Amino acid sequence: MRAGPTFRELAVQALSSVERGYDLLAPKFDASPYRTPDRVLRPVARALAGLGPFGTGLDLCCGTGAGVAVLREACARQVVGVDFSAGMLARAAAALGAPRTGPEVRWVRADARALPFAAAFDVAVSFGAFGHFLPRERPGLFAGVYAALRPGGLFAFPVAAPPRVGSGPYLALWGFDAAMRVRNALWRPPFVMYYRTFPLPAVRADLVAAGFTVTTAALGELGRRPDGSPRCRLVLARRPA
Question: Would you say residue 47 lies in a domain?
Fold first, then answer.
């Protein structure tokens, strides 16, 4: 089993820029707790299978390619993984190799806030990357995804329910975000990664403002909270046909 990053390696990453940090982390990223786990990927893959078939797919901020693997099950012709870390893209390409069957896979180095595509995809996904974007950047990010989709195209991503106020997970996320804000106030370059800046109501409003029609679907396999609400929802933002 591949060893995960050491504390020292994580500290060096945290004191780097986002891009440089992920270049450094790439060789061990899949053995770290930051990779989206299969228990999240599998329900999303099953949900997309019921919404397709799709011809072409985009994995936004693809990292080492977890979302590309999901899209290869849902798309018939081509899947593109986009990330601005050359190290993560290299790791993704090495891990996936050259698929012998299924859609063509391409890797593109680009900033998600300036996607080099126009009406090119039937579906786009993203996993675990939205904490790297400040709330003021979301409108531009979503507008770029909207432009990259064909009319009728779908932008899908999971959003976890917020932890109960005062609970252990709530305090852990609050503490992490507070530490990152202090770090970014004292150290340059900044490393943007926050866990509490992507609330579903605000995200839905920004998606609607970008032109999407938005629904959500419960990912029931991931469980429910004590009040019966789902622990995780799949956001389904569609560009009108």
Answer: yes
Half-sphere exposure of 109 (CA within 13 A, CB side): 11
Q: Is the pTM of this model over 0.85?
A: yes
Structure tokens, 176: 């992490």
Count other C-beta atoms under 10 Å from residue 129's C-beta: 19
Distance CA 195, CA 134 (A): 11
Is residue 179 included in any domain, yes or no?
no
Per the structure block, which two tokens stand in for 205? Answer: 């409003």
Q: Which of 153, 133, 152 is nearest to 141 (CA)?
A: 133
> Over the stretch 91-100, which tens digit does the pLDDT of each residue have?
999 988 766 7
CB neighbour list of residue 129: distance below 8 Å, 6 or more residues apart: 60, 61, 63, 112
CATH number at residue 135: 3.40.50.150
Q: How far apart are the first and last CA of the chain?
A: 46
In the block, residue with structure tokens 């780097």: 16
Residue range of the domain that includes 106: 36-162+199-238
